[in-house]
Specification:
- The protein is of the alpha/beta class.
- About 30% of the residues are buried.
- About 40% of the residues lie in helices and about 20% in strands.
Length: about 220
């Protein structure tokens, strides 16, 4: 699953190792090496999952987690730490963390926990839509294709949102005009073809396979 993960870890060698492993799994990963930077990045561009080292100089991972939860953020948080006492686990969970991985850890275990939290989060988050390697987040208005961020205009986003909300369903041009442009649209009906072309150029910029298919005489369908 393509998802955006933020890793906050001050030990640079470990951070680089985790970054390479997650990237090889197809995740879109950003890295911060201190708590303050991590908190800022999480607020400015909310990730789908946050991996936090507990013991960092300055602002600890525990404090980052507390501050995020205080703003209402529900992003899944996995704490990385060498602390393994029951009281430490309780403190981490009380701060708002969802999971707890003790160092040293197996990368396979971390990956399994990441998959579990992302799967649960997707089931609970109707704003996150995915088809094949394409992901659209209604809340943040972000679009990713195979981990690559794609910048869309407001109308391009609305058109893609409508298509990805009805995967493998043939949608007529009249339905698209009504839902995306509105009942009172009086412009050129060829506007749909223009915007489909814009979307294809952006979604296929790196040679990716076509997902928006034309159904001659009818409309369009999102399918592989």
């Amino acid at each position: 699953m393509t998802a955006k993960i933020l890793l906050v870890e001050d030990e640079e060698r470990l951070a680089r190792f985790i970054e390479l492993e997650l990237s090889s799994e197809g995740y879109n990963i950003n890295v911060a090496h201190d708590g303050f930077t991590g908190l800022t990045m999480a607020r400015e561009s909310p990730p789908d999952l946050l991996i936090l080292d507990w013991m960092m100089p300055g602002m600890t991972g525990l404090e980052v987690c507390r501050r995020l939860r205080a703003t209402g953020s529900k992003v899944p948080v996995i704490l990385l730490t060498a602390k393994d006492e029951v009281s430490d686990r309780v403190a981490g969970l009380d701060a708002g963390a969802d999971d707890y991985v003790v160092k040293p850890f197996s990368i396979e275990e971390l990956l399994a926990r990441i998959r579990a939290h992302l799967r649960r989060n997707q089931e609970e988050n109707p704003d996150l839509l995915q088809f094949e390697d394409l992901t659209l987040n209604r809340r943040t208005r972000e679009v990713f294709r195979n981990g690559r961020s794609i910048e869309l205009t407001a109308k391009e986003f609305e058109l893609l949102d409508y298509l990805i909300s009805h995967p493998r369903q043939v949608i007529t041009r009249d339905q698209i005009l009504e839902k995306v442009w509105g009942y009172d649209f009086m412009g050129d009906s060829n506007i749909i073809e223009v915007y489909v072309r814009y979307l294809r150029l952006k979604l296929e910029e790196k040679g990716e396979k076509r997902l928006i298919q034309t159904v001659r005489g009818v409309g369009y369908v999102l399918r592989d």
